[in-house]
Specification:
Strand content: over 45%
Shape: elongated
Distance between the termini: 28 Å
Structural class: mainly beta
Number of domains: 1
Radius of gyration: 19 Å
Helix content: under 10%
Number of helices: 0
Number of strands: 13
Largest sheet: 7 strands, antiparallel
Length: 204
């Protein structure tokens, strides 16, 4: 069966002089479908210090009828506190096959939604906020009239969220997609890293 796979990673470091805080976040999807797939991907910001990326996988019939869509938004950034020095960001995006275009849409009336908001505070030697590491992931689905989407949380920790999405039309699977989101913070120097602050929201 045809597949679309994508992996995005963002590493952002803030600080200087051996005192730094770094976040590493990822977004990954592994989708299988029985008909035709079209992947759209673009960046919604041109900033060299933060990521805001948009994705949409469209599954259609041989005649072009829309059967199912998977849309996602992925953000990564650092809010500064007492930190000095620039934010340095490296990022990678790997897709197999490559995207078909750069015009993803964002469903106004999704069938299911999932969102993770992740943050991790970093404190300096005086107890003040050095920086706050941040990430956000949003998922939305649509399916043809009469279809359904089964959303299952497979793994859920402070550093990992994995969601399984199965799009159905009767007993036929239109799209099967496993989505994985990760976030990890790290420090160097005289800093303290708080536990992550994570909020997950699912509908239904």
């Amino acid at each position: 069966m045809p597949t679309h796979k994508g992996t995005s990673q963002t590493d952002i470091t803030i600080g200087s002089g051996g005192t730094t805080a770094t976040e590493t976040t990822t977004f990954d999807f592994d989708a299988t479908y029985a008909t035709l797939g079209n992947l759209q991907f673009t960046d919604l910001t041109s900033s060299s210090e933060r990521r805001y990326s948009a994705y949409e996988l469209r599954v259609t019939s041989a005649t072009g009828t829309m059967l199912a869509t998977f849309a996602a938004r992925y953000k990564a950034w650092i809010d500064s506190g007492s930190s000095t020095g620039p934010r340095n960001m490296t990022r990678s995006d790997t897709f197999v096959p490559t995207p078909n275009g750069n015009s993803p849409s964002w469903p106004a009336s999704p069938i299911t939604t999932a969102e993770r908001t992740w943050g991790q505070a970093v404190f300096d030697g005086s107890g003040g906020t050095f920086a706050t590491l941040r990430g956000n992931w949003q998922l939305r689905t649509t399916v043809q009239t009469g279809g359904s989407v089964i959303q299952t949380v497979v793994d859920q920790t402070d550093t990992l969220l994995r969601v399984h999405l199965v799009y159905m039309s009767g007993s036929t699977v239109l799209l099967d997609n496993v989505v994985t989101m990760t976030a990890v913070g790290a420090i160097k120097g005289r800093l303290t890293l708080d536990p992550p602050d994570v909020t997950d929201t699912f509908v239904p």
